[in-house]
Design a protein that fits this description.
alpha+beta, six-stranded mixed β-sheet, three-stranded antiparallel β-sheet, 18% strand
Length: 446
């Protein structure tokens, strides 16, 4: 029986390997490409054929999670960076540079406690402290970190229901924040939109205990958006105070399976920090303010992370058997199981928890923004497609205004044919990532 090394060697020696390698390189070494079969044509305005190409092609899967596809995750992170940075610094994507002068705050809203969990506290000087739950000294890779100290008393039902309502809780927070800002300015709530506009972009990140917290860039614009001057009464200090007040004021009332009342609120820890434009090479200065570039990079990294549950499912749970064979911590298994069990009850049908059991009950998008914060993922991707199309026209010496592109493609499958191709594609992806890193380090050094 051939070993994996033998199969890889055979694939490299095959007659079509170079063509296959070029196709995989063109999609960045995507781990699970979509295979299409068909053709495209370039026609003149009268329908005459200029260029024709057909056959099988591969396109990237587009998955944002690094655990599923590192190559597509890198692309998603880059798009997320540009989306975030445009709303922070302006000067690109249709956002004016003046946004860097507006009141802006980086806020973190967390989930409440549902019971003691193992942790590894670290002081500001970097000294590790004993776990506040069990008193032991945990290693940084200890799988118990984030898990319940006492699974029997931990409120798994409350945790999963909070997670399922987190998006709705954020929505109520933004409504309350506008009310707080209006009140601080001496305005009626209905008048706020005539004086200012709240813009934000947020990303959800899983903590090791399996619950999300939200990192958000919050900005106050003029009534017509980022191009409009912000009213003088709106300051970063006022915005930070209103964020904390709004977070404490909102909640969602629901019930447990036994019919008892459950109030879902934000955790006590609500962190707000100012954002600065200058000296972007540093993460934060002595006052705790964060630079625009590093902040955009952090948010982009958060957006590609998974649940934080090691080796957890990257795709929906289909049956109880899927849960039984998951190689994850007992704490995360209990969360998956709780979401699955609640999803089978009529009272929680609208939450669709079985669909989101693999996400520990979280049903929201990982990166969302208000309409006027900056550009959109769709616009960024359209920009990239347009750039590549114009490159093709330039290579063929064609006038873009005199050419019609006709595509006709059908789905033919997903992934690679065997484990040898998967390993080779992973190597190509790693090489591309290393080249990109060296180029970036060279540019920074220059």
């Amino acid at each position: 029986m051939l070993t994996l090394e033998d199969r890889i060697s055979a694939r490299v020696k095959s007659v079509d390997f170079r063509a296959w390698r070029d196709r995989v390189t063109a999609i960045g070494g995507c781990a699970a490409p979509i295979r299409l079969s068909g053709a495209f044509q370039l026609q003149d305005l009268n329908g005459g054929l200029i260029e024709h190409s057909g056959g099988d092609v591969m396109v990237p899967c587009g998955n944002r999670r690094e655990s599923v596809c590192p190559a597509c995750s890198d692309r998603y992170a880059a798009d997320a960076y540009h989306l975030m940075h445009a709303g922070l610094a302006g000067g690109s994507k249709g956002v004016p540079e003046t946004v860097s002068e507006k009141p802006r705050v980086f806020a973190t809203l967390t989930a409440p406690s549902f019971g003691p969990v193992h942790n590894r506290p670290i002081t500001t000087t970097g000294k590790v402290r004993p776990c506040t739950g069990c008193g032991e000294w945990h290693h940084g890779d200890d799988p118990r970190i984030g898990g319940a100290v006492d699974a029997g008393t931990y409120d798994y039902t409350g945790a999963v229901l909070w997670q399922a309502h987190a998006g709705k809780l954020w929505h109520r927070f933004t409504i309350a924040l506008r009310r707080k800002l209006a009140g601080a300015a001496g305005l009626k709530v209905s008048e706020f939109k005539d004086h200012a506009r709240l813009s934000y972009a947020k990303v959800a990140e899983y903590q090791r205990r399996g619950l999300v917290h939200f990192h958000a860039v919050v900005r106050v614009d003029g009534p017509d958006g980022p191009h409009d001057p912000t009213p003088a009464w709106a300051t970063a200090e006022l915005l930070g105070d209103c964020i904390k007040s709004a977070a404490r004021s909102v909640g969602i009332d629901t019930t447990r399976p036994d019919g008892s009342a459950l109030r879902l609120v934000w955790g006590e820890q609500v962190d707000t920090r100012g954002i600065r434009a200058a000296n972007a090479s540093q993460v934060e200065d002595e006052s705790g303010e964060i630079s625009e570039a590093r902040l955009a990079g952090y948010v982009a990294k958060y957006a590609t992370k998974g649940t934080g549950a090691r080796d957890t499912a990257d795709r929906p749970i289909r049956s109880q058997l899927d849960i039984d064979v998951l190689h994850i911590s007992e704490h995360h298994r209990r969360m998956v199981q709780t979401a699955w069990d609640l999803g089978g009850l009529a009272d929680f049908e609208e939450l669709n928890l079985r669909k989101w059991a693999h996400m520990l009950g979280f049903r929201g998008h990982f990166l969302t923004k208000s309409k006027h914060y900056s550009t959109t993922f769709r616009s960024i991707r359209e920009e990239r497609r347009t750039f590549r199309t114009l490159e093709m026209f330039e290579r063929l010496e064609l006038d873009p205004d005199a050419v019609i592109v006709v595509n006709d493609w059908q789905y033919a499958g997903s992934g690679y044919d065997n484990d040898a191709e998967r390993e080779l594609a992973a190597g190509i992806a790693e090489r591309i990532r290393a080249q990109r890193k060296r180029k970036y380090e060279k540019e920074v050094a220059a």
